[in-house]
Design a protein that fits this description.
about 140 residues; mainly alpha; 2 domains; 5 helices; about 40% helix; about 0% strand; binds flavin-adenine dinucleotide
Length: about 140
């Protein structure tokens, strides 16, 4: 949360909802289990009202400066989309037909197009397939 004024936010929570548990408040910005781990790591428990501002400031600083470095991926088992494929410059963009090999149509994952997660890859596969099908 590099751009969030976390200390101000925590202090506002303390003032507005002093009887809430620190873990409950933290779980509004991170998942519940992570909130519990963070609070435990800082030795914080109990109601917001009972936590000194100093402790909240230390917590806020850690949250703002927290960096995560991925140590690896789960490999192909859970991979959802591939990078790479046939260069789009090699294809007619309306028909998906290979410029160098008329009658050869290339669509979906086989093309060097990568979509964000969220259905864009299906959309691309179906739309490019439909476009090629119209001409083929
Ligand atoms: C686990 C997972 C989850 C995903 N979730 C999403 C999602 O939620 N939303 C989204 O948009 N996209 C998702 N994707 C990506 C999406 O599935 C693909 O982008 C899309 O299916 C690509 O369609 P395609 O027709 O180009 O290729 P494919 O669906 O891979 O189809 C290629 C077909 O060709 C067949 N084939 C291969 N070689 C030969 C051969 N020599 N002869 C005959 N047939 C052959 C294969 O068996 C396969 O059926 C997900 C992918 C994975 C792996």
């Amino acid at each position: 949360m590099p751009d969030v004024a976390t200390f101000d936010w925590l202090k506002a929570q303390k003032q507005a909802e002093g009887r809430r548990q620190i873990t409950t408040v933290l779980s509004r910005i991170v998942p519940q289990r992570l909130a519990e781990r963070i609070a435990a790591r800082h030795g914080l428990s109990g109601n917001m009202a009972d936590l000194p501002d100093k402790a909240l400031a230390r917590l806020a600083e850690q949250l703002n400066q927290w960096t995560v470095t991925p140590v690896g991926s789960e490999g192909y088992r859970t991979a959802e989309v591939m990078l790479g494929g046939v260069d789009t410059a090699e294809l007619d963009q309306a028909a998906m037909e290979a410029r160098r090999v008329p009658g050869l149509f290339i669509i979906g994952e086989a093309v060097d197009i990568t979509g964000w997660l969220g259905g864009y890859n299906f959309q691309w596969a179906w739309s490019s397939g439909w476009a090629a099908g119209q001409v083929a």
